[in-house]
Amino acid sequence: MGEHLKNQTIIFKNKPRIIGNYSIVGPKEGKGPFGKMFDYVMKNDFFGEETYEKAERKMLEHAIFGATDKALLQHGDIEMLICGDLLNQIITSSYAARAYDVSYLGIFSACSAMALSIGIGACMVNAGYFNNVACATSSHFSTAERQFRFPLELGNQRPPTSQWTCTASGCTVLSNKGNGPYIHSVTFGKVVDFGICDVNNMGAAMAPAAMETMVSVFKDTKTKPEDYDLIITGDLGKLGSEILIDLMEKKGYKLGKNYGDCGQMMFFHHQDVLMGGSGCGCSASIFNSYVVERLKTGQLKNVLYVATGALLSTTSCQQGESVPGIAHAIVVKSQPPFKDKTVTKEEKKKFSDTIKRQLKKNKKEG
């Protein structure tokens, strides 16, 4: 099955493959550095729906459908759906799951949900329990803002340390067959709390958890930062990533030019997002676009993806509680362990026509 190392890391023997990936973002994210790399950029934040919450649900459904189609699978071929989001009772994920007749596992790990869902999915595929698992997450600026901060209509000024919740969604389809990048290992994180009580400073609250998990990866796998083509965190933002670099240096690890943070990379500076992006969809969309596509081509061969989450609630912050952080990590490699059946041109055209029809339908957003 898998080799469980002494600490927090599982190295997979059967190498679960990424056979499908899809990313969808809002118009603001589409104007950022990665705009041309996303599969779909929405024209507006409503995405043709009456409320932002319904728009986020539609985004997630769109990402799952797109990733399934790119994997050349039918909906019935997906055997489990693993989803998470930021809203109370993870309603985006649970309501989206209604559209799929499939086993569903709803998770909450804040902005670290993408790495956690992939880690859990990889465990299930590696063990042989499921053949095809879809792992997805989403976030929306307007839904998260009015749940965790203030009504949008107030137009409150945001403090300098705050980040911009990304309107974005991403989905990864894992399988025990196929030719694609594979999940080498997963490191499940521990809850770490350094006593940060400022809910507008998520980067500082999550950086210690990122440090703890990253150090565990290096120790468990006997690797160093320079062994990876790319190390990405999500989503510490500018301040949080600077704190992480300092914390890692104190632990004896120097993060170099191969390190970047998805929150810091999502937007251009002139887009007025202060410390950068955040939200479940931030690293999910960058991972399922820029990272996976370059793993497919071999431009990247060994990637460490560490997604971070702030485990607060609207109640806990009102009671003056500090913000616990968590980070989950996966290592993804580009070379598949063996070759599998080649898909015919006829099969590719069949599924390509299907997604074109769906995209045409979704463009009716007004």
Please, could you describe this protein's structure?
With 366 residues, the protein is α/β, with parallel strands linked by helices. The chain has one domain: Stage V sporulation protein AD (Peroxisomal Thiolase, Chain A, domain 1). Helix content is 36%, strand content 22%. It has a seven-stranded mixed sheet with strand order 1-2-10-15-14-11-12, sandwiched between helices. The chain has a six-stranded mixed sheet with strand order 4-3-9-7-5-6, sandwiched between helices. A two-stranded parallel ribbon has the order 8-13. α1 (27-30) links the parallel β3 (17-25) and β4. The chain is globular, with a radius of gyration of 19 Å. Mean pLDDT is 91; it is low at 337-343.
List descriptors:
alpha/beta; Peroxisomal Thiolase, Chain A, domain 1; 15 strands; 6-stranded mixed sheet; 7-stranded mixed sheet; single chain; globular; 366 residues
Give a short account of the largest sheet: 7 strands, mixed
Q: Give the helices and strands as they follow along the chain.
A: EEEHEHEHEHEHEEEHEHEHEHEHEH
Query: Separation of termini?
Result: 49 Å
| CATH homologous superfamily (4th level) name | Stage V sporulation protein AD
Classify the secondary structure makeup into a structural class.
alpha/beta
Q: Major sheet: order of its strands?
A: 1-2-10-15-14-11-12
* CATH architecture annotation: 3-Layer(aba) Sandwich
- Taken as a percent bin, the fraction of beta residues is 15-25%
* Number of discrete helical segments: 11
- Total number of domains: 1
Uncertain regions spanning at least 5 consecutive residues: 337-343
CATH class: Alpha Beta
Radius of gyration: 19 Å
> Fraction of residues in helices?
25-40%
